[in-house]
Amino acid sequence: MSGNTFGKLFTLSTFGESHGIAIGGVVDGCPPGLALSEDDLQPDLDRRRPGTSKFTTARREADEVTILSGVFEGKTTGASIGLLIKNTDQRSQDYSKIKDSFRPGHADYTYQQKFGLRDYRGGGRSSARETAIRVAAGGIAKKYLKENYGIEIMGYISQLGPIKIEKIDHTITNDNPFFCPDESKLDALEQYMRDLKKEGNSVGARVSVTATNIPLGLGEPVFDRLDADIAHAMMGINAVKGVELGDGFDVVAQKGTEHRDEISPQGFYTNHAGGVLGGISTGQDLLVHMALKPTSSISISGRTVDIKGESADIITKGRHDPCVGIRAVPIAEAMLALVLMDHLLRHRGQNSNVDSQTPHIPASRD
Amino acid sequence: MSGNTFGKLFTLSTFGESHGIAIGGVVDGCPPGLALSEDDLQPDLDRRRPGTSKFTTARREADEVTILSGVFEGKTTGASIGLLIKNTDQRSQDYSKIKDSFRPGHADYTYQQKFGLRDYRGGGRSSARETAIRVAAGGIAKKYLKENYGIEIMGYISQLGPIKIEKIDHTITNDNPFFCPDESKLDALEQYMRDLKKEGNSVGARVSVTATNIPLGLGEPVFDRLDADIAHAMMGINAVKGVELGDGFDVVAQKGTEHRDEISPQGFYTNHAGGVLGGISTGQDLLVHMALKPTSSISISGRTVDIKGESADIITKGRHDPCVGIRAVPIAEAMLALVLMDHLLRHRGQNSNVDSQTPHIPASRD
Amino acid sequence: MSGNTFGKLFTLSTFGESHGIAIGGVVDGCPPGLALSEDDLQPDLDRRRPGTSKFTTARREADEVTILSGVFEGKTTGASIGLLIKNTDQRSQDYSKIKDSFRPGHADYTYQQKFGLRDYRGGGRSSARETAIRVAAGGIAKKYLKENYGIEIMGYISQLGPIKIEKIDHTITNDNPFFCPDESKLDALEQYMRDLKKEGNSVGARVSVTATNIPLGLGEPVFDRLDADIAHAMMGINAVKGVELGDGFDVVAQKGTEHRDEISPQGFYTNHAGGVLGGISTGQDLLVHMALKPTSSISISGRTVDIKGESADIITKGRHDPCVGIRAVPIAEAMLALVLMDHLLRHRGQNSNVDSQTPHIPASRD
Amino acid sequence: MSGNTFGKLFTLSTFGESHGIAIGGVVDGCPPGLALSEDDLQPDLDRRRPGTSKFTTARREADEVTILSGVFEGKTTGASIGLLIKNTDQRSQDYSKIKDSFRPGHADYTYQQKFGLRDYRGGGRSSARETAIRVAAGGIAKKYLKENYGIEIMGYISQLGPIKIEKIDHTITNDNPFFCPDESKLDALEQYMRDLKKEGNSVGARVSVTATNIPLGLGEPVFDRLDADIAHAMMGINAVKGVELGDGFDVVAQKGTEHRDEISPQGFYTNHAGGVLGGISTGQDLLVHMALKPTSSISISGRTVDIKGESADIITKGRHDPCVGIRAVPIAEAMLALVLMDHLLRHRGQNSNVDSQTPHIPASRD
Questions:
Q1: What positions does the entry give for NADP(+) binding (chains A, B, C, D) (predicted)?
Q2: Which value, in Å, is the radius of gyration of the alpha carbons in chain C?
């Protein structure tokens, strides 16, 4: 599996290029009996979809997913689930410049070196278009987790360029084009993005995802810790350069007395750990953060080399997100759902008969 | 494989508890013909070994590794390599307090909930003692990578509590008890650690690892990107709460013009990406950073619950590192070596016949 | 991966039911640069296709495969390859009998018990229809193996019911509806099948596959031996109940002097081993045999139980092969190609730099 | 994992050569809470142990297994279990002949070609000595399966050279040196083996394994069928050349009416399928058969080539089993236990909440 399969028991294998016929995937290991239709998956696809606001790429894709198998009379059968999304807006374009030069900050150069050739149309396999299938597959996981365990997964932008959100009110998060939970920042965000677009530049972002009602005991000690698998999942999203659990890099300057989450019979006092201890879920909320780089596809000229290794200048025209972090929000949610689903099945496999011999401590004292 | 196997083609499967008879592992997939003996692995084990300075745990372990198989007449045969390290200093101790209560910030609570029982002696499987085998296995990978590709892997402390290093001079990194590459900070570090110990507290740290002479083309697009697998590896080290490649979380506030590493025929102008584009190595240096939390084993009383779920206070006596980040340096190096080795074999499997059709760009313009 | 992914480096993940919208799959790990189009895959699909002779099921499927990704400008890119075959002949039918009873010898009962529900239309996922995608994926492997190593894979019927083939002449194998390499048996086969059909019964078969020009050194010692993985692949084909390498079950009565394949500088004297020693290919021809049971879908009434556990009688009407062994020939070839391709990449990963230090012995003295 | 790891959720990774320091392994994924000590594993090791009868190799190994981890206060903890067996009888020997020539029928030639070097002492990794660890690991699986599900696994010799057993009475199977369940054949077996030894020759054998009280629903459709994974496991045992489920190769000549196992509310009428339909267990007894070739280590001279590719003659002196099939009996049991354990955990992972909606049919009408 050269990198296109994710997970161990609940798996997703994907295919498809930005400008090919279609993208798709196979979800394997889904428990049978889950009520499922395309309508369950479309809302998250629509959240990720390009062309929905003036702050994302102008490419318009319907992103309509079809479930090709694994569902019978409205329920999952336990068989593998085929997913397909046709590419509709493969705008014909002049690729001559991209074809012969390497865009700095892109996968152009590394793909060419690794494979000896590359599908230069819109980035081919390296395009974020591939993540639409992750969102569809994550939707299946989300539904199972919510219906069977009450797990809720919520993503949002916690910083965009210099603008940090200061308040979390999820009643507005999905109602603005930035997945921003802080109403007081919406105007600033809009102004910032407008200026950025005018400038022809791009900017980074910090995306956060939380999950609540997590069953205790998910995650494997040592290598396949829950947090290690979350880090793998998130760092595997295009443009992500950093991943944190709980307090993340703030722990560097913390003391032991400050960091350790003390416990009372009424619940944990704090959640610096972000819901994971020793690689295993505590039942507290999962708190995950990630840093996304500014997209390198900008309309300001940059220095590079061409395919012969000679100096060149390049401007990436076309329809690109000035802040790829925004649309990463539903992708990050989907990846977290896939990790949780996989670990849930793994945990049931090994430990379904376990009596923990000790009470469950509430997630928090609230 | 419930979390105790790492890698896909070059794999490490480990076993062993802190206070059991021995810890050990199986390294599988090593190419044949590599000259190998215990002497090649011992130096890194000695760097990780507890009891070597007054700033790490007082536990004394010889940490002498034995190669049980896979080497014949001084060379690897291609068969699996058995590694064994006996536990020698399993000091008899009173575990009654730890046995019945959950240390805040530890895996005690999650192990008990997941498995219904736990080996409470010294943390059992959750102890960092397990990482000694990773260091031994990483030593095999390091040797192969160096001899066949010239790859050099170097770890160091880049911040300890409030003290940030400002200069990198690796001629001193391995000659001080902090793996600190900045001579001007050694006195401050020593003073800080002395105060911390007196206080009975612990502190976090930032560990960095770089690797040079990286072959171009390592890493798989989409899920098993080189950076995603590095994140998995590093977040799987005890106490790690965050992982960054290149500029990491600094990218949040960067613009596209600032972040993209421009290219010239003489080399890349910058390395904000940390050596990976689109999940694939660029040939530039790998730059990896991680945040380690302060150990929760401190001698300042904390609030917790006992096994019956009732309120309790707990002090963790015993021999513990006030800053676990320090000894994590050789562990992080080993994990990076394992990831690189695995991806090297994967790359050779799929792409050994590829002609890249384009020149290699030097890592930097120096 | 709940059983729908095959292989480790060169992988196939499949989906799709007999009477769903489509069947499909993802091939991952294909080396880049292989010239590939649908035309390369269609011939084997046509060989497997139902409705091509009066001795296979009357179901008519065009079985036209579409390559959805992973190929650009006529060559594989190294990215995952999406394959899709639409189901066209999902004849509307009365499933009420099959729905409520378990056909003896079928997967009906076990699917219901394992999953709590099942797609009863034409067997759903347990239908041999699923194997069409294996044939398409195997076609990719076959092409790579042939173009890069000269490997040829050839399957045939070596016994059908009581009729054993006695002569192998592959110039006729693909020109008769039985994949029979012995012209002298064609009349007997035709008569036997005609009688069988009249009787409303079915019969078993023995299928053989050979592969020539096998590179030396494929296969991993211990668990993932080449022969072990071939056994896994073949026993994973619908209706297979036995697998043999080389002399197979005849070895039970052989003596050591008789079985061991002696060696001369001009080549091996014999090939009792079937091309594998110690789990690793010798360079001799691979000789694989398998036994396929008679299909249980027959029009002679059988005793069973219904979904409430009560006695019932059942006749399986519909369009079924009286000898499923016949159409298994291209499937077995495809599975062998997938195994060889996977082990080729694995071998290159670990051993691409090996100098064997000893001459290659020719496959045979001819 | 280059072939030295077996299984997906319940895994065994092994190491060790015939004449090295020790052999060992890591068992991962064992459910916690299983009472376990070395005493549970030793009986099967003693059954496999060489030197226990005059009909097996004269090599004497205590084969005392040590559990190095994963067990605390007499119970498994859920952590990985380290197993170690020291090699004690590594008789010093003259290997000059074996070193420079390839024994026909051995892995000598293929190991040399694949790896460029080999551990020629006693066959190194290709020696059946490696299987001792499989037997130890299988003992853990056997105990879990028996205590939690009542599963019993029983192996025996069903044919040795020309002598076929005709009666199965398992009260004597483990009380004779042949694992023969037919008392009337014991004298013939003893005479045959005595003659064979005198002749300096070896002979093949057929080994059978049955398992009873199998839970319904084990096995995954398509590639990882229960029978496919059993075939993988058995063909991965040294010297095995064929594997059958149920009627095996007899199905070739069977008709559908004859083969299909009809069902009544009181149980299945027959068990031609050997306990698996559509890759999933029916609850009937598992019936597995395998063919083992005669060992090639015989004291009758054979033709071969030396390491320079020149003609040579070779006699394999030393301590070898004239019929390796005999000692394969406990190995085959162990491998079946490992497969069942793995599929049990996989099944629990995906389907632990399933209500089958239909009664369980008894395994047979008895």
A1: 48, 54
A2: 21
Is residue D357 classed as helix, strand or coil in its secondary structure? coil
Q: Which of residues 43-72 of B touch D (CB under 8 A)?
A: 66, 68-70, 72
Query: Which residues lie below 8 Å from residue A171, measured CB to CB, with a gap of 6+?
Result: none
Distant-in-sequence, close-in-space partners of B106: CB < 8 Å, separation ≥ 6: A277, A278, B123, B126, B296, B297
Residue D102 in this model has a pLDDT that exceeds 80: yes
Q: DSSP secondary structure string, B18-62?
A: TTSSEEEEEEE-PPTT-B--HHHHHHHHHHH-TTSSTTS-S----
Q: How far is CA D18 from the centre of its chain?
A: 18
Q: What is the pTM of this model?
A: 0.97
In this prediction, residue B293 carries a pLDDT of 98
pLDDT tens-digit series, residues B125-163: 999 899 999 999 999 999 999 999 999 999 999 999 999
Q: Is B366 exposed, middle or buried (0-12, 13-18, 19+ CB in 10 A)?
A: exposed
Question: Is D142 part of any known ligand binding site?
Answer: no
Is beta strand B11-15 parallel, antiparallel or unpaired with respect to C152-160?
A: unpaired
Tell whether residue D126 is among the known ligand binding residues: yes
> In this predicted model, what pLDDT tens digit does every residue of D111-138 receive, in sequence order?
999 999 999 888 889 998 999 999 999 9
Q: Read off the pLDDT of residues C139-177 as tens digits, 9 standing for 90 and up.
A: 999 999 999 999 999 999 999 999 999 999 999 999 999
Distance, in Å, from the CA atom of D206 to the CA atom of D229, rounded to the nearest integer, reads: 19
Q: How far is residue A327's CA from residue B63's CA, in Å, rounded to a whole number?
A: 49
Residues 6+ away with beta carbon under 8 Å from C241: C291, C292, C293, D227, D244, D245, D246, D247, D248, D249, D251, D273, D274
A90, pLDDT greater than 70: no
Interchain contact, B222 vs A236, CB within 8 Å: yes
First-to-last C-alpha distance (Å) of chain D? 45
Is D18 among the annotated ligand-binding positions?
Answer: no
CA atoms within 13 Å, Cβ hemisphere of B330:
24
Residues 101-120 of A with CB under 8 A from B: 102, 104-107, 109-117
What is the three-class DSSP state of A281? strand
**Contact yes or no for D333/D44 (Cβ under 8 A):** yes
Q: How confident is the model at residue C52 (pLDDT cuts 50, 70, 90)?
A: low
Smallest CA-to-CA distance from C219 within C36, C69, C342, C97 is with C342
Instruction: With CB atoms and an 8 Å threshold, state whether B252 touches A159.
Output: yes
CA angle D205, D208, D214 (to 5 degrees): 165
Decide if A229 and B232 are in contact by the 8 Å CB cutoff: yes
Cα separation values, C3 from A80, B111, C128, D111, D245, Å: 9, 30, 15, 31, 19
| Residue A99 pLDDT | 87
pLDDT band at D175 (very low <50, low <70, confident <90, very high): very high
> B346: annotated binding-site residue?
no
Cβ pairs bridging A and C (under 8 Å): 175
Quick check: helix, strand or coil at residue A289?
A: strand
CB contact under 8 A, B352 and C351: no
Please name the member of B80, B117, B121 whose beta carbon is closest to the beta carbon of D4: B80
Whole-angstrom distance, CA of residue C350 vs CA of residue D323: 34
User: Tokens 């591939």, residue?
Assistant: A130
Chain C nearest-CA residue for D157? C252
Decide: helix, strand or coil at residue B271. coil
Contact between C117 and A17 using a beta-carbon 8 Å cutoff: no
- For residue B65, the cross-strand partners are B85
How many whole angstroms separate alpha carbon C207 and alpha carbon C178?
11
Report the DSSP pairing between strands C75-76 and C71-72: antiparallel
